[in-house]
Design a protein that fits this description.
Blueprint (H helix, E strand, L loop, with lengths): L1 H14 L22 E10 L2 E10 L13 E7 L5 H15 L4 H14 L8 E6 L4 E6 L2 E7 L1 H12 L6 H7 L10
Antiparallel strand pairs: 1-2, 2-3, 3-4, 4-5, 5-6
Helix pairs in contact: 2-3, 2-4
Length: 186
């Protein structure tokens, strides 16, 4: 059932684009991803005043932030700047290392995987990660499936970049989890 829902998520992304909406309009509506998924929260990452991306978290009812790795959910990033896939992969690994000590071989294996998955992005491009509690992480870029990673520890640490209490962006985490009312400007 969960695999079917994730396949529906990926298919619906190819058909409809998810518009960025200010947090004042954040609601409990079902989103365009799949029946039962709701928009949990949205946040904008800014560095030195420059907008980097908007992040949107889609969850099923009953989602628990403290046990995020046990749930099916989707996290979408809409970029506002140009970045190489290489820089995205390297930054992701740096953020994952902030949460846990990784063996050098594990870090290198994950970096190689992400380098093979993550494309260069331009403003308005959308990169989505789809999480399954069994450890599968699927990546979708502008509605096209890029591939997946079958590794529960990778999934936990990758999504922990945004959802773990050890994140480097605790304000963004609070916004994504719907704990604050501050969000991206329209």
């Amino acid at each position: 059932m969960r695999r079917l829902m994730l396949n529906c998520l990926a298919a619906s992304l190819a058909v409809s684009a998810l518009p960025a909406r200010p947090s004042a309009q954040r609601d409990r509506q079902e989103g365009p991803l799949a029946p039962g998924f709701i928009k949990r929260g949205q946040a904008r990452l800014k560095v030195f005043g420059f907008s980097i991306y908007d992040a949107t978290l889609w969850t099923e009812p009953g989602f628990s932030a403290t046990r995020y790795a046990e749930h099916t959910f989707a996290l979408e990033l809409q970029y506002w700047r140009t970045f190489s896939g290489d820089s995205i992969a390297r930054r992701a690994l740096d953020e994952m290392r902030l949460q846990a000590d990784l063996a050098p071989s594990t870090g290198q294996r994950w970096l190689t995987t992400m380098l093979g998955l993550f494309p260069d992005v331009q403003p308005r491009d959308r990169l989505m990660g789809l999480h399954q509690p069994v450890g599968a992480t699927r990546f979708v870029f502008n509605g096209q499936v890029l591939g997946h990673v079958e590794d529960t520890e990778f999934a936990r640490l990758f999504f922990g970049i945004w959802l773990s209490p050890k994140t480097s962006q605790p304000g963004m985490r609070s916004e994504l989890l719907g704990e604050t009312s501050v969000g991206p400007a329209s």
